[in-house]
Design brief:
Radius of gyration: 21 Å
Structural class: alpha/beta
Distance between the termini: 68 Å
CATH topology of the largest domain: Spore Coat Polysaccharide Biosynthesis Protein SpsA, Chain A
Strand order of the largest sheet: 3-2-1-4-7-6-8-5
Number of domains: 2
Strand content: 15-25%
Oligomer: single chain
Helix content: 40-55%
Order of helices and strands: EHEHEHEEHEHEHHEHHHHHHHH
Number of strands: 8
Largest sheet: 8 strands, mixed
Length: 335
């Protein structure tokens, strides 16, 4: 059997709600020379049955059904088992436009210096309706803009829209398990010194937003990991060793100074993450709340904090609202 041009890597966990639509959008691509690897990561719903039914209908689908090991292990397995030189990421709750693979494969064929290529996205809600996006920044359309966006904490690539060269990703060790929920950002930053990364200025994927998706449930952990990934990127850029390279998981925030060998890292991460937690219900109800308190006790800015007290009251977190108000009343005001 000859190798296809593209291997599509899709990991699924309890994805029955949107899975069929995602698969149909892949099968409808105008460039049909692909294999679709769908890995069921120990789902407890009807996901395995949906995958099996589609695999019977289309020989391009390669199902992998196994116990739960987590997204990062699944992504690495998918990349390793891919037979094509190009790997297209796809999530089980998103939708590809028909010309996506053709556009990306043509660009990568014409630009061998590019190893990773995303696309712009059309943001939709759980019912397929337009989803308002707060950020006005589009994903960078050339490598220079990609590099410039890193220190500004702007969007770099839409992960489920990405197509990359398989051997290049394998050469840097794939996705690193330490960066749970932001494994894609860490990978792009590690690849930034080895290849060119950018996005096509076309909306070739519909990216779905809904309350139960991973990025909503783990917002604080994701933001902490992203901040550490950018610090590790800076270490490599400065010619220093990256202490996160061989970690299976990131240490607690208070241990980051020791990890990087200098003071101020933990405090800098809190300062970067705290403003984002203020607008995340899952963050305010979870570990993000204690991060905010520590940030304030360290002399962090009070901007928006009293509004957060009211926000906590509105979502029924009266105890936390009182704790935040007490901390604001006693913490020193910066400046």
């Amino acid at each position: 059997m000859s190798s296809p041009i593209i291997s599509v890597a899709m990991s699924v966990f309890n994805g029955e709600r949107f899975l069929a639509e995602a698969i149909e959008s892949v099968l409808a691509q105008t460039l049909g020379d692909f294999e679709l690897l769908i890995l069921d990561d120990g789902s407890r719903d009807s996901t395995p049955g949906i995958i099996s039914d589609y695999a019977k209908r289309d020989s391009r689908i390669r199902p992998i059904i196994r116990e739960n090991r987590g997204l990062i292990a699944s992504l690495n397995q998918l990349v390793y088992e891919s037979r094509a030189p190009l790997v297209a990421r796809m999530d089980a709750d998103d939708v590809c436009l028909p010309q996506r693979f053709a556009r990306q494969a043509a660009f990568l064929d014409a630009h061998p210096d590019h190893g990773v290529l995303g696309t712009w996205c059309e943001d939709i809600d759980e019912n397929g309706r337009p989803w308002p996006v707060a950020s006005a920044h589009r994903h960078p359309v050339d490598h220079e803009s990609f590099l410039a966006a890193i220190p500004l904490d702007r969007p770099l690539l839409c992960h489920p829209s990405v197509m990359f060269r398989r051997e290049l990703v394998l050469a840097v060790g794939g996705y690193h398990s330490a960066f749970k929920h932001c494994e894609d950002l860490d990978l792009w930053l590690r690849l930034a010194s080895r290849t060119r990364l950018s996005s096509l200025p076309e909306q070739l994927i519909k990216y779905r937003h809904y309350s139960d998706q991973v990025s909503s449930r783990h917002a604080t952990q994701q933001q902490i990991g992203a901040a550490v990934a950018r610090i590790a990127y800076g270490e490599r850029l400065a010619g220093r060793s990256d202490p996160t390279a061989d970690l299976d998981s990131l240490p607690p925030l208070d241990e980051l100074d020791a990890l990087f060998g200098r003071e101020g890292i933990s405090r800098a991460v809190r300062a970067e993450v705290a403003p984002g937690v203020l607008y995340s219900q899952s963050g305010l109800r979870g570990d993000g709340f204690d991060l905010i308190l520590r940030y304030l006790r360290d002399g962090g800015a009070h901007d928006g904090m009293w509004r957060t007290v009211l926000r906590l009251m509105r979502i029924g977190e009266m105890g936390r609202a009182l704790r935040l108000a007490s901390t604001l009343a006693t913490a020193r005001v910066p400046g």
